[in-house]
């Protein structure tokens, strides 16, 4: 069992390793609070390489908090498109407005002020307080949990309350005062690069003190939580074409994908075919009578707790009809050409569909004859 006497040695080994091995990430050049904040929000649920690309693009367009506060939400959503979990960017926008109005555009420094901003939980507040302001605050993410589960051979799921409390308490005791910026990043970096899901113990600076390593069971830690089943959903949607344009509508400002433009559609109900579902959905959402001209393809898209199989069709009006819908599931609508469609922010599954459609040669004559 590791004793508290060993904590300073472990901390020093970590700090030395970090100095020699840290990745040259763009927000590590000056640790500006704005940069640290945006990087932390972007990197939630996003791989590092992808996060860096989005971060650099974001900073080119929005160099400071004021620029975010003054930006239009549609432009922020467009910059975020592809990262998913869009409540993150909406909260960034809200927080930037609060910083602009209540903190004179200067990022707040105290943990409680940081924590009070929209979209900032315990982990992110700790990350900003320590990485941007070098305050003696710990931050525990999944990488840190994994390192501690192995280092201390935690033999029950790390998310259990007593284990989370143990990790926070131990990390706080181990943190060398005045070195939180490096210490927290070192732990997370070690978890990302060395003590990863498949651990690389041979090049780990903590090997001599690691209990799971000595027991030969690093891969059995952390102990997994029993997984809930992943739900599968079939949905049907389609491109309704009329006078050379495609119909899209805007979702309400609440719920999943709030405020996004989309194609009408919805779940395939029990006993219904996807073809019947798309016709019914158009009628329910717009009162448009539509008919299927052709099937486009089936798109599969995975979310954290469910998988969607989307059946997509080319559609036209089933009979002579006005181009004006009666909106039942949207706040606005547009008839757009392909170029205009490319410029709007769509949910991830619809974006995949559109990317495919741009290479589908069947679309052109269908649009011309619609
Ligand atoms: S020795 Fe292996 S299991 Fe232990 S902390 Fe290092 S990489 Fe992780």
Jot down its keywords.
binds iron/sulfur cluster, 2 domains, Endonuclease III, domain 1, Nucleoside Triphosphate Pyrophosphohydrolase, 370 residues, seven-stranded mixed sheet, alpha+beta, 16 helices
The CATH superfamily name of the largest domain is Hypothetical protein, domain 2
Mean pLDDT: 91
> H/E order of the elements?
HHHHHHHHHHHHEEEEHEEEHHH
Measured by DSSP, the beta-strand proportion falls in 5-15%
The proportion of residues forming helix, as a percent range, comes to 40-55%
Structural domain tally? 2
CATH fold name of the largest domain, please? Answer: Endonuclease III, domain 1
Which structural class best describes the helix and strand composition? alpha+beta
Structure explained in plain terms:
This protein has 16 helices and seven strands. Helices cover 45% and strands 14% of the residues. A hairpin with a 2-residue loop joins strand 1 (231-242) and strand 2. It has two domains: 4-220, Endonuclease III, domain 1; 231-369, Alpha-Beta Complex (Nucleoside Triphosphate Pyrophosphohydrolase), CATH 3.90.79.10. Strands 1, 2, 3, 4, 5, 6 and 7 form a seven-stranded mixed β-sheet that branches. With 370 residues, it is an alpha+beta fold. It starts with 6 loop residues before the first helix and ends with a helix. It binds iron/sulfur cluster. The site of iron/sulfur cluster (SF4) has 15 residues, from helix 9 and helix 12.
């Amino acid at each position: 069992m590791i004793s508290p006497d060993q904590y300073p040695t472990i901390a020093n080994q970590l700090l030395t390793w970090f100095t020699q091995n840290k990745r040259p990430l763009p927000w590590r050049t000056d640790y500006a609070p704005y940069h640290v904040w945006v990087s932390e929000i972007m990197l939630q649920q996003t791989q590092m390489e992808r996060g860096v690309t989005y971060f650099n693009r974001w900073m080119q367009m929005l160099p400071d908090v004021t620029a975010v506060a003054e930006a239009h939400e549609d432009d922020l959503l467009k910059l975020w498109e592809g990262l998913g979990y869009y409540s993150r960017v909406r909260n960034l926008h809200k927080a930037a407005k609060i910083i602009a109005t209540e903190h004179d555009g200067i990022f707040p420094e105290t943990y409680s002020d940081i924590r009070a901003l929209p979209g900032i939980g315990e982990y992110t507040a700790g990350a900003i307080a320590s990485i941007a302001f070098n305050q003696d605050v710990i931050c525990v993410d999944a990488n840190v949990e994994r390192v501690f589960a192995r280092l201390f051979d935690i033999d029950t799921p790390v998310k259990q309350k007593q284990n989370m409390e143990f990790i926070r308490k131990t990390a706080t005791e181990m943190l060398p005062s005045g070195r939180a910026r490096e210490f927290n990043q070192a732990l997370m970096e070690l978890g990302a690069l060395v003590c990863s899901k498949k651990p690389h113990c041979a090049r780990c600076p903590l090997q001599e003190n690691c209990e799971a390593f000595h027991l030969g069971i690093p891969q059995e830690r952390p102990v997994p939580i029993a997984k809930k089943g992943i739900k599968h959903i079939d949905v049907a949607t389609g491109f309704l074409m009329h006078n050379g344009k495609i119909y899209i509508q805007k979702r309400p400002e609440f719920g999943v994908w709030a405020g996004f433009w989309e194609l009408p559609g919805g779940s395939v109900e029990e006993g219904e075919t996807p073809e019947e579902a798309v016709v019914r959905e158009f009628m329910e959402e717009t009162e448009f009578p539509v008919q299927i001209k052709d099937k486009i393809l089936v798109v599969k898209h995975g979310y954290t707790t469910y998988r969607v199989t989307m059946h997509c069709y080319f559609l036209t009006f089933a009979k002579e009809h006005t181009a004006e819908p009666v909106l039942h599931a949207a706040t606005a609508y547009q008839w757009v050409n392909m170029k205009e469609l490319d410029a709007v922010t769509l949910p991830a599954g619809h974006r995949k569909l559109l990317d495919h459609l741009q290479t589908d040669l069947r679309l052109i004559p269908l649009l011309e004859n619609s």
